[in-house]
Structures are given as C-alpha cells and as structure tokens.
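Exercise: predict the fold of this chain.
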Amino acid sequence: MALNIKIIPVTPYEQNCTLLWDDETNEAVLTDLGGNAAEIWHIIQKKHLNLKEIWLTHGHLDHVGGVVAMRELTDTPVIGPHCDDLFLLEDLSNKTREYAKYGFEFSTNFLPTRWLNEGEVLSVGQYEFSVLHIPGHTPGHVVFYCEREKLLIAGDVLFKESIGRTDFPRGNTQDLHHGIRTKLYRLPENVVVIPGHRETTTIGHEKIYNPYVRAE
C-alpha cells in the first residue's frame, strides 16, 4: 500500500504537473494541469487509474492551461484554487492567446467546480491533504500537505533555494514571506517539497539554504 507520485513536466515552462494515486484503490488526482492533457490522459488510462479530481494551486496559465482540454476527455471535478484567483481564470483565454508565440496551447476560460479555503482537507484514496492558503505569488495561491507521507505540493510558493515571483498582478512579497515562515517552515524538516518547477527539495534544506526566506 503506497501513495504513488509521478511528476510530469508540461508546457514550455516545464511546470510540474503531479499525478498522485493510491495503489490499493487506484484512485488518482492531478495537481496543476498546465497542458499536455492528451498525453497525461494516456498515462492515466495505461495505468488503469480512476481520476477523481484535478487540484489547482493557483491560476497562472502554465498551471491551469490543460484543464479545459482534459475535461473534454473526462468530466473530472476541478478543485481550487482560492477564489482570490478568479481574475486569472477569467483572463485565461487572453493569456493563452498572448503566449501562443511561446508554444502555449489555447484554452478557454473556466471556473472550478469549487474554490478552496484554508483548513479544508482533500483526499486521494486513503491519503489526506490539508489545504494551506499562502498568497503572495498570486492572491489565491494554495498548497497541499499530506502529513502521513510528509509531502507538500507547493506550486509556485517555494522552490529549491528560491521562492515564487511577486511582480505579477496582485503579487505581494511580504505576504509570501510571511506564509512561508509561519506555515511551511513549521512543517517537519523531512517533508519533501514538490515545487511548480524544477527539482524537489525539503523543508529542512530550505530553512537553511534558501537565500530569500530564512527560518527565524
């Protein structure tokens, strides 16, 4: 019995879409489906998984741009992010059209099946993930933490020795630093962090080596 993890880089920005599944129940979720929907659907079918939900950390196009295409293949509920990212989802068609020159697929706008708030709990099979709201990169950014597996799906909040940009519309550096220090850095040091881009890290490593936000 285990929680299986497959990180699938998608879009020209190589965003880490993550496929999580319980190998006892074959129930699966996708986090941050930014693109490559047909390819990912093929992986899910090949593994004979039951896709329960799509979870979104925030509304940037490289994290949500494949949702509409996936829902044309399978009518899967879309959960999150926090409602403060509504303005990003309402502008998705414009953004994907604008970024087509960089190789992004066009997507129409969409709304999630439901928004998320701090303290909610999501599940895939027998594994529960707590929702933490950490604004700063975007106002509605959330992350997903599985205490049982010591696993954090961090989106664009925390990277290996870096943090998310705050120079986008409605970004806020102070909010991002505060959320990392008061919520993420209080998690156990052996928690594995899957960021929105690049390689994984741990909470313990970032508390020591992250030059942007050091532990207090």
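Check your answer against the key: The CA atoms of residues 154 and 195 lie 5 Å apart.
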